[in-house]
UniProtKB/TrEMBL annotation, chain B:
<keyword id="KW-0456">Lyase</keyword>
<dbReference type="GO" id="GO:0018822">
    <property type="term" value="F:nitrile hydratase activity"/>
</dbReference>
<feature type="domain" description="Nitrile hydratase beta subunit-like N-terminal">
    <location>
        <begin position="1"/>
        <end position="102"/>
    </location>
</feature>
<feature type="domain" description="Nitrile hydratase beta subunit">
    <location>
        <begin position="123"/>
        <end position="217"/>
    </location>
</feature>
<comment type="similarity">
    <text>Belongs to the nitrile hydratase subunit beta family.</text>
</comment>
<dbReference type="InterPro" id="IPR008990">
    <property type="entry name" value="Elect_transpt_acc-like_dom_sf"/>
</dbReference>
<dbReference type="InterPro" id="IPR024690">
    <property type="entry name" value="CN_hydtase_beta_dom_C"/>
</dbReference>
<comment type="function">
    <text>NHase catalyzes the hydration of various nitrile compounds to the corresponding amides.</text>
</comment>
<dbReference type="Pfam" id="PF02211">
    <property type="entry name" value="NHase_beta_C"/>
</dbReference>
<dbReference type="Pfam" id="PF21006">
    <property type="entry name" value="NHase_beta_N"/>
</dbReference>
<dbReference type="InterPro" id="IPR042262">
    <property type="entry name" value="CN_hydtase_beta_C"/>
</dbReference>
<protein>
    <recommendedName>
        <fullName>Nitrile hydratase subunit beta</fullName>
        <ecNumber>4.2.1.84</ecNumber>
    </recommendedName>
</protein>
<dbReference type="InterPro" id="IPR049054">
    <property type="entry name" value="CN_hydtase_beta-like_N"/>
</dbReference>
<dbReference type="InterPro" id="IPR003168">
    <property type="entry name" value="Nitrile_hydratase_bsu"/>
</dbReference>
C-alpha cells in the first residue's frame, strides 16, 4: 500500500521542518510549503536526524544556563544502575515473609516502604494490590505511561506502546496470552488504569515450594512482569 | 482532548511484543531526552500535566508513528519554545542566541539530582468535604473537553462504584493549562467489564480508573 512507502518520508520531513509557534497549532508539525524534496537526502535515518536534534536542544539548554550536562549524566546513571525491579522485588519478598509488613503495605504502600531503609525512597500514593486465588491484578496507563518508577525502574517499551495501552482494559486475557501466560477463567481480572498520580504495584502470590526461604532467596523469584500483573513469579527450580 | 493518546479499548494495534533482556534505553539520545525532561521540569519550566498535554497535542499521525522518547522530545521542544525558554531559531541553529529566561527553581545542577529521584507530591489540603463515600455508585460524566483531561473516553457515561478515596490532589485539567492546582478529591472507581464493553465482554473483568470528583455524578 502506498501510504506505507511514503510514511517514513513524511515523518522525516515533518520532524525536520516544524515551524509554528504553538503546540496546538498543527502546522508546527507539517512540512514547510516551500520545502523542496528533490535535494533532501532521504538515505539518512529518522534516528540520526533525531540524534542531531536532541544534541542541538541539549546544547541550547546548556548554553542558556538551564541545565548542567553532568546533572543530566547523573539522572541517566541513576536510572541505568540504581532504580529497577530489584527494588520492588525486595518489597514483595518482605511482604511474603512478614505478615505485619504486608498488612501495612496494603494499607499504605508509600508509608510501609518508607520504613525499609534498604529500598530506594518512594514517593506518595503508591497503592499495592494483592493477587489472591480469587483475583488477578494488572496495571496499565491507557493515557500515557504512568508506572511505579521507584519500584520498577523505567517502563519497558511494550508498557508504553499502543497494543498494551489499548487492549489491557478490554481484553486482558488476550494480552496475557501475548506474554504466554493465562489465568483460569474462574478468577476475576482486575485492571488498574493509572489515570492520576497514584501508582500501582501488584503483590503477586508467593510460589509454592518456597517454605523456609529467606527474603533474599524469594526476591530472586520476583519478576518485573509479576509486579505489573503480566506475569507470575518464577517457581523454584525453574530457569531464571 | 479526544486524542489518539486516549487508547483504552481501541482495536487494531496488534500483539503486545515483550523484548527479552530489554535495555533501559535503546539509544543514547533517548536517555538525554529523559534527563532533559526531568531536569527542565524540576527547574520549574513546566509541570507534569502541561508536559503530558504537549505530548497529547502532537498530531495523531506523528504521535502514532513516533517512538516513545521521540514523542517526549517533540513535546519538550515545542513546550520550551511556547513558554519562551528558547526560540525556534536557536533550536534550528543548535546554539543560544540570547540570554536564558529565569527558571522558577534555578539552574538544574548536580545538587538537584537527588531530590528528583523521588516523585513529586500531589496531595493538597481539601477545600471542601468529599462528595462521595466508599461504595457509592457514580456515573462518569459525558464530557469532551478539548483541553487536557484524565477521564478516559472508554468510561464516560458509565456507572461505577467508589472503591478508594485518595484524598485531595492537584487537578490535572486545570494544572495542565496553567490555570492553577485547583485541588479535587480523587477516587478509585471500579467498572464492570461488561458495562464498558457490552455483553460480549469478559464477564470476569473489572476495570478501575482514578477519577477526580469533577468527573463524577451520583448514580
Amino acid at each position: 500500500m502506498a501510504w506505507i512507502e511514503i510514511r517514513p518520508h513524511l515523518v522525516c520531513c515533518m520532524t525536520a521542518d516544524r515551524r509554528a509557534s504553538t503546540a496546538t497549532d498543527q502546522s508546527a508539525y507539517l512540512p514547510a510549503m516551500s520545502h523542496d524534496h528533490s535535494h533532501h537526502d532521504h538515505d539518512h535515518s529518522e534516528l540520526s536526524e533525531t540524534e542531531l536534534r536532541v544534541r542541538a536542544l541539549e546544547t541550547v539548554l546548556t548554553e542558556k544556563g538551564y541545565v548542567e550536562p553532568a546533572a543530566l549524566d547523573a539522572i541517566i546513571q541513576a536510572y541505568e544502575t540504581k532504580i529497577g525491579p530489584h527494588n520492588g522485588a525486595r518489597v514483595v519478598a518482605k511482604a511474603w515473609t512478614d505478615p505485619a509488613f504486608k498488612k501495612a503495605l496494603l494499607e499504605d504502600g508509600s508509608k510501609a516502604i518508607g520504613t525499609l531503609g534498604h529500598v530506594s525512597r518512594v514517593g506518595d500514593h503508591l497503592v499495592v494490590v494483592e493477587n489472591t486465588p480469587q483475583r488477578h491484578n494488572m496495571v496499565v496507563c491507557t493515557l500515557c505511561s504512568c508506572y511505579p518508577w521507584e519500584m520498577l525502574g523505567l517502563p519497558p517499551v511494550w508498557y508504553k506502546a499502543s497494543p498494551y495501552r489499548s487492549r489491557a482494559v478490554k481484553d486482558p486475557r488476550g494480552v496475557l496470552a501475548d506474554f504466554g501466560v493465562s489465568v483460569p477463567d474462574a478468577i476475576e481480572i482486575r485492571v488498574w488504569d493509572s489515570t492520576a498520580e497514584t501508582r500501582f504495584l501488584v503483590l503477586p502470590m508467593r510460589p509454592a515450594g518456597t517454605e523456609g526461604w529467606s527474603e533474599a532467596q524469594l526476591a530472586e523469584l520476583v519478576t518485573r512482569d509479576s509486579m505489573i500483573g503480566t506475569g507470575f513469579p518464577r517457581t523454584p527450580g525453574a530457569p531464571s | 482532548m479526544n486524542g489518539v493518546h486516549d487508547m483504552g479499548g481501541m482495536d487494531g494495534f496488534g500483539k503486545v511484543e515483550p523484548e527479552a533482556d530489554e535495555p533501559v534505553f535503546h539509544a543514547d539520545w533517548e536517555s538525554r531526552v529523559l534527563a532533559m525532561v526531568r531536569a527542565m521540569g524540576a527547574a520549574g519550566a513546566f509541570n507534569i500535566d502541561t508536559s503530558r498535554f504537549y505530548r497529547e497535542t502532537i498530531p495523531p499521525h506523528v504521535y502514532l508513528s513516533s517512538s516513545y522518547y521521540k514523542k517526549w522530545f517533540l513535546g519538550l521542544e515545542e513546550m520550551l519554545i511556547d513558554k519562551g525558554y528558547l526560540t525556534r531559531e536557536e533550536v534550528a541553529a543548535g546554539h543560544a542566541k540570547q540570554p536564558g529566561k529565569a527558571l522558577k527553581h534555578g539552574k538544574f545542577d548536580l545538587g538537584q539530582v537527588e531530590r528528583i529521584m523521588v516523585r513529586g507530591q500531589f496531595a493538597r489540603p481539601a477545600p471542601a468535604p468529599a462528595k462521595f463515600n466508599i461504595g457509592d455508585r457514580v456515573r462518569a460524566k459525558n464530557i469532551h473537553p478539548t483541553t487536557h483531561t484524565r477521564l478516559p473516553r472508554y468510561v464516560r457515561g458509565h456507572v461505577g462504584v467508589i472503591e478508594l478515596n485518595h484524598g485531595c490532589h492537584v487537578f490535572p485539567d486545570t494544572a495542565a493549562m496553567e490555570r492553577g492546582e485547583n485541588p479535587q478529591w480523587l477516587y478509585t472507581v471500579v467498572f464492570e467489564g461488561r458495562d464498558l464493553w457490552g455483553a460480549d465482554g469478559d464477564p470476569t473483568l473489572k476495570v478501575s480508573i482514578d477519577a477526580f470528583e469533577p468527573y463524577l455524578d451520583p448514580a
